[in-house]
Amino acid sequence: MVGVMANEVARHLRKNPTIAEARLWEELRELRRQGYHFRPQVPLAGYIVDFACLDQKPIIEVDGFQHLSGEGAKKDAARDADLRWRGFTILRFTNADVGHALDGVVLEVLAALGAVAKVE
To answer: Quick one: which of 8, 25, 54, 60 is 20 to 30 A from 90 by CA?
Structure first.
């Protein structure tokens, strides 16, 4: 996916988030008050990542069951390695993590940002 096609796919994904992505996005938008600007569905290095804070370089992926084993897990591992090589930190959460432990997910994101002390 490059150029216009990636942007069109990303736009479609932004307009049609999963329930877990929508819940997490609400929390990530609140982090702007602390100086962290996350963007949803970002075309990046030939991929579309669920959420990225380009200044501090964390990428957050919210995954369904298809990513937990088999071919999905292999593709994710290769993608994660490429993005890490580019200087990004990858945080992966399941839909269930976001649905049942959203506060914990947000704390992990803040820890990755080095911002745990800033939690109000």
So the answer is: 8
Model-wide pTM > 0.85: no
Higher per-residue pLDDT: 10 or 47: 47
- Residue-wise DSSP of 8-42: HHHHHHHHS--HHHHHHHHHHHHGGGGT---EEEE
CATH number at residue 28: 3.40.960.10
> What distance in Å separates the CA atoms of residue 8 and residue 102, rounded to the nearest whole number?
29
* In the block, residue with structure tokens 């911002």: 115
Number of domains in the chain: 1
Range of 46's domain?
A: 3-118
Question: How far does Cα 28 stand from its chain's mean position?
Answer: 10
